[in-house]
Design a protein that fits this description.
With 147 residues, the protein is mainly β. The protein contains two helices and ten strands. The strands form two sheets. The chain has a seven-stranded mixed barrel. A two-stranded antiparallel ribbon has the order 1-2.
Length: 147
Protein backbone atom coordinates (compact mmCIF):
# COMPACT_ATOMS: atom_id res chain seq x y z
CA UNK A 1 0.00 0.00 0.00
CA UNK A 2 1.14 3.59 -0.64
CA UNK A 3 1.66 5.77 2.42
CA UNK A 4 2.55 9.45 2.60
CA UNK A 5 5.10 9.86 5.38
CA UNK A 6 6.63 12.74 7.26
CA UNK A 7 10.17 11.38 6.89
CA UNK A 8 10.25 9.78 3.43
CA UNK A 9 7.41 11.23 1.34
CA UNK A 10 5.25 8.66 -0.50
CA UNK A 11 6.50 5.11 -0.07
CA UNK A 12 5.26 1.55 -0.57
CA UNK A 13 4.56 -0.19 2.72
CA UNK A 14 3.76 -3.83 3.32
CA UNK A 15 0.31 -4.40 4.85
CA UNK A 16 2.03 -6.28 7.71
CA UNK A 17 3.58 -3.02 8.92
CA UNK A 18 0.16 -1.60 9.79
CA UNK A 19 -0.47 -1.13 13.52
CA UNK A 20 -3.87 -0.34 15.06
CA UNK A 21 -3.92 1.45 18.40
CA UNK A 22 -7.63 1.30 19.29
CA UNK A 23 -7.44 3.83 22.11
CA UNK A 24 -4.84 5.99 20.33
CA UNK A 25 -1.72 7.43 21.92
CA UNK A 26 -2.06 9.81 24.85
CA UNK A 27 -2.75 13.27 23.46
CA UNK A 28 -3.51 11.78 20.03
CA UNK A 29 -6.51 9.58 20.87
CA UNK A 30 -8.32 10.35 17.59
CA UNK A 31 -5.59 8.67 15.51
CA UNK A 32 -5.73 4.88 15.53
CA UNK A 33 -4.02 3.63 12.35
CA UNK A 34 -0.25 3.70 11.87
CA UNK A 35 2.55 1.94 10.07
CA UNK A 36 5.80 0.90 11.73
CA UNK A 37 8.83 1.82 9.61
CA UNK A 38 12.56 1.34 10.04
CA UNK A 39 14.30 4.68 10.44
CA UNK A 40 17.41 5.45 8.40
CA UNK A 41 19.35 5.56 11.65
CA UNK A 42 19.23 2.39 13.69
CA UNK A 43 18.11 1.55 16.35
CA UNK A 44 15.16 3.88 15.74
CA UNK A 45 11.79 3.36 14.09
CA UNK A 46 9.03 5.63 12.82
CA UNK A 47 5.40 5.19 13.87
CA UNK A 48 3.67 7.00 11.00
CA UNK A 49 0.00 7.94 11.19
CA UNK A 50 -2.06 6.81 8.21
CA UNK A 51 -4.50 9.68 8.81
CA UNK A 52 -2.16 12.68 9.02
CA UNK A 53 1.20 12.64 7.25
CA UNK A 54 2.69 15.21 9.66
CA UNK A 55 1.91 12.93 12.60
CA UNK A 56 4.82 10.56 13.16
CA UNK A 57 6.66 9.42 16.25
CA UNK A 58 10.23 8.20 16.66
CA UNK A 59 10.43 4.94 18.62
CA UNK A 60 13.24 3.00 20.24
CA UNK A 61 13.50 -0.31 22.09
CA UNK A 62 13.98 0.84 25.71
CA UNK A 63 15.95 -2.29 26.65
CA UNK A 64 18.81 -1.07 24.42
CA UNK A 65 19.70 1.71 26.85
CA UNK A 66 17.98 0.47 30.03
CA UNK A 67 18.58 -3.28 30.34
CA UNK A 68 17.02 -3.06 33.82
CA UNK A 69 13.74 -1.69 32.44
CA UNK A 70 10.77 -3.47 34.00
CA UNK A 71 7.23 -3.26 32.76
CA UNK A 72 4.43 -3.86 35.19
CA UNK A 73 1.60 -3.75 32.68
CA UNK A 74 -1.82 -4.85 33.83
CA UNK A 75 -3.21 -8.11 32.53
CA UNK A 76 -6.25 -6.12 31.41
CA UNK A 77 -4.09 -3.93 29.15
CA UNK A 78 -2.32 -6.97 27.68
CA UNK A 79 -5.55 -8.90 27.13
CA UNK A 80 -7.06 -5.86 25.40
CA UNK A 81 -4.54 -6.34 22.58
CA UNK A 82 -4.58 -10.15 22.74
CA UNK A 83 -1.27 -10.76 24.49
CA UNK A 84 -1.31 -13.91 26.60
CA UNK A 85 2.40 -14.64 26.11
CA UNK A 86 4.90 -11.81 26.83
CA UNK A 87 7.11 -13.16 24.01
CA UNK A 88 4.45 -11.97 21.55
CA UNK A 89 4.92 -8.34 22.62
CA UNK A 90 7.04 -5.66 20.97
CA UNK A 91 7.93 -2.87 23.39
CA UNK A 92 8.84 0.65 22.29
CA UNK A 93 9.41 4.01 23.94
CA UNK A 94 8.45 7.24 22.22
CA UNK A 95 11.48 9.47 21.63
CA UNK A 96 11.48 13.26 21.86
CA UNK A 97 14.13 15.32 20.09
CA UNK A 98 13.93 18.92 21.35
CA UNK A 99 13.94 21.67 18.73
CA UNK A 100 16.58 23.54 20.76
CA UNK A 101 19.11 20.76 20.16
CA UNK A 102 18.89 19.48 23.74
CA UNK A 103 19.28 15.84 24.66
CA UNK A 104 17.13 13.19 23.02
CA UNK A 105 14.78 11.65 25.59
CA UNK A 106 12.59 8.53 25.79
CA UNK A 107 9.28 8.11 27.56
CA UNK A 108 9.72 5.06 29.78
CA UNK A 109 6.54 5.77 31.76
CA UNK A 110 4.26 5.32 28.74
CA UNK A 111 5.60 2.39 26.67
CA UNK A 112 3.90 1.34 23.44
CA UNK A 113 3.11 -2.38 23.52
CA UNK A 114 2.36 -4.11 20.20
CA UNK A 115 1.09 -7.65 19.67
CA UNK A 116 3.50 -9.13 17.09
CA UNK A 117 0.82 -11.38 15.60
CA UNK A 118 -2.31 -9.21 15.47
CA UNK A 119 -0.48 -5.87 15.15
CA UNK A 120 -2.78 -4.36 17.79
CA UNK A 121 -1.09 -1.80 20.02
CA UNK A 122 -1.70 0.05 23.25
CA UNK A 123 0.15 2.73 25.14
CA UNK A 124 0.43 1.62 28.76
CA UNK A 125 1.10 3.81 31.77
CA UNK A 126 3.57 2.48 34.32
CA UNK A 127 3.27 3.59 37.95
CA UNK A 128 6.83 2.62 38.96
CA UNK A 129 8.52 5.89 40.05
CA UNK A 130 11.80 4.84 38.35
CA UNK A 131 10.28 5.38 34.91
CA UNK A 132 9.63 8.95 33.85
CA UNK A 133 8.63 10.60 30.60
CA UNK A 134 12.04 12.14 29.78
CA UNK A 135 14.97 9.74 30.18
CA UNK A 136 18.02 11.16 28.42
CA UNK A 137 19.04 8.37 26.05
CA UNK A 138 22.73 9.33 25.75
CA UNK A 139 23.10 9.71 29.54
CA UNK A 140 21.41 6.33 30.06
CA UNK A 141 23.70 4.68 27.49
CA UNK A 142 26.77 6.19 29.17
CA UNK A 143 25.58 5.03 32.61
CA UNK A 144 24.86 1.50 31.29
CA UNK A 145 28.34 1.36 29.73
CA UNK A 146 30.05 2.26 33.00
CA UNK A 147 28.56 -0.69 34.92
Amino acid sequence: MKVTTKAYGVIDVDEHQKITISSGLFGFEAFKDYVLLDAERQPFYWLQSLDVERLAFILVNPFLFRPDYELDISDEDLLEIGIFDPQKALIFSIVTIPADGGGMTANLQGPLVINRETRQGKQAILTDPRWGTRHNIMDELAAAGSH
